[in-house]
Design a protein that fits this description.
Elements: H1 2-32, E1 36-37, H2 40-46, E2 55-58, E3 62-68, E4 74-80, H3 85-98, E5 109-115, E6 118-124, H4 131-135, H5 146-166, E7 170-172, E8 181-183, E9 189-191, E10 198-200, E11 207-208, E12 213-214, H6 220-225, E13 227-228, H7 230-246, E14 253-255, E15 258-260, H8 262-272, H9 288-301, H10 312-320, E16 324-325, E17 336-337, E18 349-350, E19 359-360, E20 370-371
Parallel strand pairs: 1-5
Antiparallel strand pairs: 2-3, 3-4, 4-6, 5-6, 7-10, 8-9, 11-13, 12-18, 14-15, 16-20, 17-19
Helix pairs in contact: 5-7, 5-10, 7-9
């Protein structure tokens, strides 16, 4: 009798697995039907058989190559890891999320390819790579003036506002960071890599989800409670803005012999009345009042309590207009200290499979207000 029960259970499990496999196939078929399908041979030719010389980047679950299609169009070809279940999820999420979404500040998904174990996404090609490559790190590719940097911040804000407040259902990107903001030939920004994005219907206040994203950009309430809202993207945007202004990475770094996150350093300088000390030394000339406003807006975006952060439409107004910011309502940022940073080793990429412990700073809560001058 016992053997019979186990046998029945095994049979049901096998049926369940078959149903699950077919469900995944159906989901993939439905997703790929939403966008143009490229042949594997076409993409092989375009990238010279995915030659290393055409490699232009690497993400968490795949490698990106530059390619030239038969019609002469330049494209970015992202090959997702065949062995990674997360790569498969990213493939489906990306297609399902933005296959029909168009905006000047979002990278356009041109199509996809399914060939055996291979899952490939094809995007428009952007000449100036990412903010990460152009601005951060020791090997900067260009020298960006303030006009260009402010346009990058404002364009990224517009892209996020579109995702958060104009689409139905709304989209939370979940991985806003320097390497995911790409720059076209005129250095206009476009938000890319929607592999971690979540659809956000109007009738819910938050999504409970496993942690995914990049250390240094993660909102504390998301890491600690697993509750995702649009304000997590707002937090990441605030950190990104500080990076663009300072030319420094968001991650743990040495500031006068003290290891700090960029947002920590920004708040310290703000309290000392020395926020302009954070500005990138390469910015030889810049409008001080405007640069200060951008950094203060970034601090409004990174406040510890998510409900006190502005909406992205409010951020656009704060950045684009000469408004007076009510700094009496500005509270300290929330940030997460990774214990491993004490040894000088800070892990950058996180996924749902990552087990990481954090310490967080706790701050009082007040309301953010913007008052026109």
């Amino acid at each position: 009798m016992i053997c019979s029960c186990f046998g029945a259970s095994t049979l049901l499990q096998k049926k369940s697995n078959k149903h699950s496999d077919r469900s995944e196939e159906d989901q993939e078929g439905a997703s790929t039907a939403k966008t143009k399908n490229f042949s594997y041979k076409e993409l092989q030719v375009a990238t010279n058989n995915f030659h290393l010389s055409n490699k232009i980047g690497r993400g968490g679950f795949g490698t990106v190559y530059k390619g030239i299609l038969n019609d002469g169009r330049q494209v970015a070809v992202k090959t997702l890891s065949a062995e990674s279940s997360q790569g498969e999820r990213e493939f489906l999420t990306e297609i399902g999320t933005i296959s029909n979404v168009k905006h000047p500040n979002l990278v356009e998904l041109l199509g996809c390819c399914v060939h055996g174990p291979n899952r490939i996404l094809v995007y428009e090609y952007l000449e100036n790579n990412s903010i990460d490559r152009a601005l951060l790190g020791p090997r900067r590719s260009v020298k960006l003036d303030w006009k260009t940097r402010s346009a990058i911040c404002l364009g990224t804000a517009r892209g996020l506002a579109f995702l958060h407040e104009e689409l139905e259902p709304r989209i939370v990107h979940r991985d806003i960071k320097a390497s995911n903001i790409l720059l076209d030939e005129d250095f206009q920004p476009k938000i890319g890599d929607f592999g971690l994005a979540k659809l956000f219907p109007d009738d819910i206040t938050h999504i409970s989800t496993k942690l995914a994203g990049t250390t240094g950009y993660l909102a504390p309430e998301y890491v600690l409670g697993g509750q995702l809202t649009m304000k997590a993207d707002v937090y990441s945007f605030g950190v990104l803005t500080l990076e663009v202004v300072s030319g420094r990475s968001s991650a743990n770094a040495d500031y006068g012999g003290v290891q700090m996150l960029l947002v920590e350093r920004a708040w310290e300088l703000y309290e000392e009345g020395k926020l302009l000390d954070l500005v990138d030394p390469e910015l030889e000339e810049f409008p001080k009042h405007e640069v200060l406003r951008y950094m203060k807006v970034a601090l409004f975006c990174t406040q510890a309590n998510a409900s006190r952060r502005p909406l992205m439409t409010q951020v656009i107004e704060m950045l684009s207009k000469n408004v007076h910011l009510n700094e009496k309502e500005l509270t300290p940022p929330g940030y997460l200290e990774d214990p491993s940073r004490r040894s000088g080793k800070l892990s950058k990429n996180l996924s749902s499979d990552t087990s990481t412990s954090y310490q967080t700073s706790s701050f009082p809560i007040t309301i953010t207000q913007v008052t026109p001058r």
